[in-house]
Amino acid sequence: MPSSLARVATDAAPRYAKQLASHFGRKIPVEEIPGGGHRLTFQSTDVVLETLDDHLLITVTAPDAAAVTAIRDVVGSHLERFGRRGELSVVWDEPAQD
Description:
This protein is an alpha+beta fold. Helices cover 31% and strands 32% of the residues. It has two helices and five strands; from the N terminus they run βαββββα. It has helices spanning 13-24, 65-82; strands at 3-9, 30-33, 37-42, 45-51, 55-61. A five-stranded antiparallel sheet has the order 1-5-4-3-2.
């Protein structure tokens, strides 16, 4: 399945992961994963938020590249809006076929 990855530089990765999970959790299934991260499930697309010391790692996996692009745009735009004071920038790699 195609996937895409973003590394977002921030020293507040746990806070942003929790904020995204809480926001999207009103409409989609969200679960905590070991290490303080979260998994968001948009129909057949998974988004994994992993918190590291100096960045938030976001992985989107979907059945096709179009779904990867759509969900990463939604998640990325929300994160940039939440982090506009910190001037967060989400840059994605190109969807990779696995």
